[in-house]
């Protein structure tokens, strides 16, 4: 096993020290890590990853933080979406293009209907590891290790051993994915002039198709009119900002891709990373590692989050109170959001902390059918979002973003939506190896449904600011 997994290391008197180093997290208790049988192989992989080139550069990280400052102020809206867990076999041009396309289409609808510019972050090019509630599961009467993502072990029940070499494979699949995304952007794929060619594919809902095509026609017509008048297109119109993010789960990987630049440490394996709901303990290794990097940081906030402890985590991760640094990603469930979210917002407000509030309406609303399928219902997901908008507005706060697990494929993993999928439809095309995702049609419908909520929230915030002024 990892030599730094020894819990006794957290008791050697280092807890009270405030000094941070790239290895100080190793002195803390750590959860949800792989159990590697060969430490020599771990050392070799760590050394290899430390030598490999970064995936992103620090200027892109700084750019994202600037944009998140604008989200924090209510001047932009944050859309973060993608797979629950990427698979190595999905590192294919058509699959990547579909993921990119659905995020572009959703952001176009949100810009048009919400009247705010967008910040786009994909759960892509690094989302290969997943925390699990249990280390083992029973398959065919045998107890085996749970699948924790392709970056840790294999989905095949016969090959569940945790293998550090899979982190190197994760790196190269992330590189290939990001390289293709960059080629799409530089080649004009994300240019708003090309939005008419972002094919709606399997969307059978005539109303949504017609409305989307109307939006595209009006946007392209407006652009053509401006250019006819001699006004050149803004660079943002021609190449959309697109950032990558993933849960920073395996700290061996994350620290190996962290580089010191001008006296500051940047994780250059992604622009944005978040701490999961299972690994956000104040005195544990994940918070210790994250407090030393310059990247904007997400914190998943679940039903067990104690408001006062959340305040302390934010203070520890952002002692300089930088704007655009912290994104609180609430995943409370439709059933509990009305009771829990006001307590969290009030605690952050009383502490006078500046954060971006984002709603993840997926993770708290997962259920299992009698046939064993994990699923989520479209209306329940939307309901938690609607309640979150209302609660923020009522407390003088504002919801700055949404966080979806979705795909550009025509899957049948979540019930409801424009195609009115039922539990009986789940086996038809259930391809997720972990959690259920919104399909193409459901994602488009979700964008249409929340766009008015964004516009209403921004309008009420502007009225409040003008009144105070």
Automatic annotation (TrEMBL):
Q: What is this protein called?
A: Phospho-2-dehydro-3-deoxyheptonate aldolase
Answer whether the UniProt record assigns the keyword Zinc to this protein: no
Cofactor note as given: Binds 1 divalent cation per subunit. The enzyme is active with manganese, cobalt or cadmium ions.
Q: What is the lineage of its organism?
A: Eukaryota, Metazoa, Ecdysozoa, Arthropoda, Crustacea
Q: Which domain of life is it from?
A: Eukaryota
- Top EC class, one word: transferase
Chain residues that bind Mn(2+): 84, 363, 405, 435
What this protein needs as a cofactor is:
Mn(2+); Co(2+); Cd(2+)
- Say which family it is in: Belongs to the class-II DAHP synthase family.
Tell me what reaction this enzyme catalyses: D-erythrose 4-phosphate + phosphoenolpyruvate + H2O = 7-phospho-2-dehydro-3-deoxy-D-arabino-heptonate + phosphate
SUPFAM superfamilies from the UniProt entry: Aldolase
Q: Which UniProt keywords apply?
A: Amino-acid biosynthesis, Aromatic amino acid biosynthesis, Cadmium, Cobalt, Manganese, Transferase
Q: Note the PANTHER family from the entry.
A: PHOSPHO-2-DEHYDRO-3-DEOXYHEPTONATE ALDOLASE, PHOSPHO-2-DEHYDRO-3-DEOXYHEPTONATE ALDOLASE 1, 2
List the coiled-coil residues: none
EC id: 2.5.1.54
- Molecular function terms, GO-annotated: 3-deoxy-7-phosphoheptulonate synthase activity
Family matches, as InterPro entries: Aldolase_TIM, DAHP_synth_2
- Work out whether the entry's keyword set contains Cell inner membrane: no
Q: Which Gene3D superfamilies does the record match to this protein?
A: Aldolase class I
Q: What pathway does the annotation place this protein in? A: Metabolic intermediate biosynthesis; chorismate biosynthesis; chorismate from D-erythrose 4-phosphate and phosphoenolpyruvate: step 1/7
